[in-house]
Amino acid sequence: xxxxxxxxxxxxxxxxxxxxxxxxxxxxxxxxxxxxxxxxxxxxxxxxxxxxxxxxxxxxxxxxxxxxxxxxxxxxxxxxxxxxxxxxxxxxxxxxxxxxxxxxxxxxxxxxxxxxxxxxxxxxxxxxxxxxxxxxxxxxxxxxxxxxxxxxxxxxxxxxxxxxxxxxxxx
Length: 171
Description:
Blueprint: H1 12-18, E1 19-20, H2 46-49, E2 67-68, E3 77-80, H3 88-92, E4 97-105, E5 111-120, H4 126-134, E6 137-139, E7 141-143, E8 146-148, E9 150-158, E10 169-170
Parallel strand pairs: 1-5, 2-9
Antiparallel strand pairs: 3-6, 4-5, 4-9, 7-8, 9-10
């Protein structure tokens, strides 16, 4: 699954150490697809909103717990959005898909960890979605005026018939 990138792709080993997703099989590179702007993101459907509970979230850089967006005064918001790169093979084959991620954002606005909650179809878009989120910088969540760690669930939609994939949405 090749991807046109302006930066080197994240290695499968590093990816597995940060994200709970299996490594993708190596394939022969195909012609590069165009770099597309950040995709449009919509909230997951009601059936997908009941995400599995967080068994043991990663340790934040402080002793503060990760708080859901509903538990803070101001949830974390992206301020430096990394480009989302549509993988070459699905783009050339006109395959659409979506990836739902749980992201753990620390109190300085960087991503500590990512869980893949679902991907349809599986194995095609997870790396592109994760790579983009790992390179995105966030304004930290705030509670009583203080920056706190935040956990968010976002859905990223990939549609080869749109000008660009849909940007991530959060709930």
